[in-house]
Specification:
about 35% helix; single chain; alpha/beta
Length: about 150
């Protein structure tokens, strides 16, 4: 079985990792650097373009509890965040460069994940679509068409 994941941000990288760690071969599509975005500055996977905080690690709130659950399930992102952690009190704040390098290195180096650098213009099926707010115009149009919007 081969799974298709579209988008190499946080959700796409985590989804590709989770599938590959469970023995599923994954093809991960990321349009950058072929198709740039106004927010990204590198070609790395999981590049943070907004806040460098993953919010609280306190187990008495939903944010912290979710992180604990993700760790128990073998999350890719949390060990990378730990590696890139900077002082932030009870927040899990990271150095963006170190974080994206860590995620990129692990995902691109996983033997079960093939990273393809090209824009996906037609909605593959089945697939995990994790392109977020910077989805290309062509893929956004394909998604809208598929949904009848």
């Amino acid at each position: 079985m081969i799974a298709t994941v579209v988008g190499g941000g946080l959700a796409g990288s985590e989804a590709a990792w989770a599938l590959a760690e469970r023995g599923v071969r994954v093809t991960l599509y990321e349009m950058r650097p072929v198709v740039p975005t106004p927010a990204h500055r590198t070609d790395r996977l999981a590049e943070l373009v907004c806040s460098n905080s993953f919010k609280s690690v306190d187990l008495t709130n939903a944010h912290g509890l979710l992180k604990a659950e993700l760790r128990a399930l073998g999350s890719l992102l949390l060990p990378c965040a730990d590696e890139a952690r900077v002082p932030g009190g009870t927040a899990l704040a990271v150095d963006r460069e170190i974080f994206s390098r860590a995620v990129h290195r692990r995902v691109a180096g996983h033997p079960g994940i093939t990273v393809i650098r090209e824009e996906v213009a037609e909605l593959p099926s089945p697939a995990v679509v994790a392109t977020g707010p910077l989805t290309s115009e062509r893929l956004a149009g394909a998604i809208a068409s598929r949904l009848g919007v």
